[in-house]
Amino acid sequence: MKNQLTQQNQDSKVLSSRYLQLLATPIILLFLTTSPVRSQILAQWGFNGNNTGIAGPLTSLMPAVFSPSVTSTAYNSTVFYGEGGWPAAGLSPAHYFEFGLAPLVGNSLNIATIALTIRRSSTGTSGSGPTQFAIRSSIDGYTSDILTGNLTPSATTFTFSPGSSFISLLLGVRFRVYGYQAVISSGGLSRLVMENLQVNGIGTILPARIVQFGAVLRNRNVQVKYEITNNEPGTIFAIERSVNGTDYKTIDLYSGRNDQDQFVYSFDDAVQSIAGQLLYYRLRITFPSGQKIYSNVSSVDLTTVLPERLTTIQQGSTLIVRPTLHGSGELRIFNTNGQILHVAKAIAGNSLISVDLPQHPAGVYFIQVTNGKLLESTSVFLR
């Protein structure tokens, strides 16, 4: 809008400065009322005789310390310094100052900026200590530089944004300040001096929370339903199913709309083809940061549901067969050469036939079930 007003002034050459001021006033008021910024201090260290720091209302702090390779540490008035051991050459992974923070349970961190006031020692004829620094984090195992800079005997505040990798963090994060290329002037002491440190956030917000999750059998389908609150744009919700309670596969994916802070979602799982067993369901939530959480498991008993065809389930060395035929019958298992490997009786009223195959080689097998009048068959790959 300012650019538009400037262009109008250049084109017309007739607007007075008082008229421009009047035009600008409501524009500024509009900006202030329509662009609220929700920010807060997540953590702050003043180093006034201690390194404990002050945590934000929904954060916890990790110790702010120098690494063991730094010879000694001490406080001097309102500074905290590490003395001795700083490398004269390039960056050493063993020489650093470290601080960290984490969200309280049920919350996430959104780090916007970090303001670090730092210097080298003012002792000696021209100061002493590291002349260069680099900041890295635990996000990538301290492998890449977030910020680098020069250190002088005078305190300098470096304010920087660590980047999008530090948004929606459910776990804690640590930062390390590495000092290197140290010099020691006559009478000086090699020190890295911390004067002040502040971590600012775009609020500490609740991540998506599962209000309820469950699965129930309705007719021949399993209805899986969940309710979410505090949804965050970019979060992905996946319904997973298992036949043994251990191995899960994804059967449905949903990404909530950007304007959906709270919603209810349901999915109908057509399970007739795998009826006759217990099924297990859970919800996996993947946040924009890549972190994942899981719901409690909900189980559904399908042993009373007739399958639409002959079905088999392998559990270790046991093969469970669920026929659709009624009455007493017989089960036969063949290999690919047509050789009968196993015969079992199916008792009337028993919908499951369990067969132990402790020493079978992996491969394709054929299953037949007959009640004397009808026959049904299928093939299965046994591991």
Can you describe this structure?
This protein has 383 residues and is mostly beta strands. It contains two helices and 28 strands. Strands 1, 2, 4, 5, 7, 10, 11 and 13 form an eight-stranded antiparallel beta sheet that branches. Helix content is 8%, strand content 51%.
Structural class determined from secondary elements: mainly beta
- Percentage of residues in DSSP E strands: over 45%
Indicate the overall shape: elongated
Rg computed from alpha carbons, rounded to a whole number of angstroms: 33 Å
Low-confidence stretches: 1-38
User: Helix amount, in percent?
Assistant: under 10%
- The tally of strands reads 28
Q: What's the pLDDT, averaged over the residues?
A: 82
Query: What does the largest sheet look like?
Result: 8 strands, antiparallel
Tally of alpha and pi helices: 2
Features:
383 residues; mainly beta; 5-stranded antiparallel β-sheet; elongated
Please give the structural blueprint.
Elements: H1 2-12, H2 17-34, E1 40-45, E2 54-55, E3 59-66, E4 72-76, E5 79-83, E6 96-103, E7 108-120, E8 128-137, E9 147-150, E10 156-160, E11 167-169, E12 173-184, E13 191-205, E14 209-218, E15 221-229, E16 236-242, E17 249-255, E18 262-270, E19 278-286, E20 292-294, E21 298-301, E22 311-315, E23 318-322, E24 329-334, E25 340-346, E26 353-356, E27 363-370, E28 375-382
Antiparallel strand pairs: 1-2, 1-13, 3-6, 4-5, 5-13, 6-12, 7-10, 7-11, 7-13, 8-9, 8-12, 14-15, 15-18, 16-17, 16-19, 19-20, 19-21, 22-23, 23-26, 24-25, 24-27, 27-28
